[in-house]
Amino acid sequence: MNSVTVNVANVLKVLKMNKKEHIKKYKEAVEGYWTEMALIIEKIKAKLDAKAKLENMNISLHIPVSYEDEYETAIQMLLMHCASTIDMSKEDFERMVLDKWEWKQNWSMSNSKYWDNKSK
Question: Residue 46 domain-assigned?
Fold first, then answer.
């Protein structure tokens, strides 16, 4: 099956839930980012205070990214749709209903480090 006719209200409900969960996970990643940054700064401060052996230090933290606008665009498009049903391609269904966006896997992998660190 390459397309399906769906009820716009049902898709909107799911899409809004997916957006809400995305925002929650993004905020958790931001919190985890700052926690990770604080841990790195503590380690650097300890080395500075101890005048530890000289060494090169690289700080590399991935900044969390939000794709909230992707959800909002899809929501607004559905709100502007003139009928109660809409034909959706398999790809659009996967994005809007199953929450399988092109960026989702990379986004989850890059942020999962911060989700794990947020409570440290």
Answer: yes
